[in-house]
Known about the structure:
Elements: H1 2-17, E1 24-33, E2 39-48, E3 51-56, E4 65-76, E5 78-83, H2 99-105, H3 107-115, E6 118-123, H4 130-139, E7 147-150, H5 177-190, E8 194-198, H6 215-227, E9 231-236, H7 239-248, E10 252-255, H8 261-269, E11 273-275, H9 279-286, H10 297-318, H11 339-345, H12 350-356, H13 359-365, E12 382-385, H14 393-398, E13 400-405, E14 408-412
Parallel strand pairs: 1-4, 5-6, 6-7, 8-9, 9-10, 10-11
Antiparallel strand pairs: 1-2, 2-3, 4-12, 12-13, 13-14
Helix pairs in contact: 5-6, 6-7, 9-10, 11-12
Zinc ion binds near residues 82, 84, 124 and 327.
Amino acid sequence: xxxxxxxxxxxxxxxxxxxxxxxxxxxxxxxxxxxxxxxxxxxxxxxxxxxxxxxxxxxxxxxxxxxxxxxxxxxxxxxxxxxxxxxxxxxxxxxxxxxxxxxxxxxxxxxxxxxxxxxxxxxxxxxxxxxxxxxxxxxxxxxxxxxxxxxxxxxxxxxxxxxxxxxxxxxxxxxxxxxxxxxxxxxxxxxxxxxxxxxxxxxxxxxxxxxxxxxxxxxxxxxxxxxxxxxxxxxxxxxxxxxxxxxxxxxxxxxxxxxxxxxxxxxxxxxxxxxxxxxxxxxxxxxxxxxxxxxxxxxxxxxxxxxxxxxxxxxxxxxxxxxxxxxxxxxxxxxxxxxxxxxxxxxxxxxxxxxxxxxxxxxxxxxxxxxxxxxxxxxxxxxxxxxxxxxxxxxxxxxxxxxxxxxxxxxxxxxx
Length: 416
Ligand SMILES: [Zn+2]
């Protein structure tokens, strides 16, 4: 086994070291918002294979394939730090299919996500490690999709009445600090990039905020993850779980509605990223009838959205690092960036909103030197939008016309 792997590694390396001919592309933009805060008119971005090699204003290098996007503004490929790519469509029917079938149906969401200008996702829970399979298929080039960084099975405490005492623990499940540490080790051994902890109730039409994982359990999992070089995102719909997640040393905090000022101050002080995911409840609201939510669900969602937005507004004011996470699920893909509209409502400028999906999100990922900017040495992940994304967030949300991921054009709607 080892020998085969080594040989395969050598062959792959040979292809990278000595390509038949380096594929160089020069992309001309009318304007480039590169993510560093700089705006360049008549920019030329040179891409060799899957990396950006230069950004300037001169003539394209001789022999390069020229892509003329002078009618558009270039922005960095965006990063959605909270998705559920493997769940498949429609919650009312997905339970009747196998997890693998749902993952394969999720392929449609990969393309729609790219069309929204998102070229990297952090995927936040999956069954049977199907997120790892999806990541592998994309990295092998068999499927086209955003770069995926995955968590495997989210860590959780036993909650289901269908899991009687004494039954074997499900994937990611634990009760007590030792079992949470074990569950974290299992995910890492399986090959995940991040650890996710479901620290509270809340999902779909359920907007309750009960803390389900104790501080000690969170801390045990966080410590193991950090000791093995992995970051941890903790889901908490409510303020109690959020407070403990911050105390336990989470790297990102998901949802976290109704945090008080002291908790937000602590989040800012400890430089923990906040991922509000406001828009996913809008999606649930819009689909409440189709998803057969019980009476009252829409009112609950409306109330939760208002409080989620208010918490985000406070966090913006306090200077928190806020990253775009759509919590996209089922058929929500393609709407990944609608979250940015909420961020502007919460007090961000369009430029800050764009940063939440580029440089800030790259920081959350620990990839600030490789994604989130159009700069030499970075992955060639670039989007072209029709209009000025610094003036109007709607340009970023609804006017993506062209996307390059890893040096390949994956979306082209420039020809009408
Ligand atoms: Zn989620």
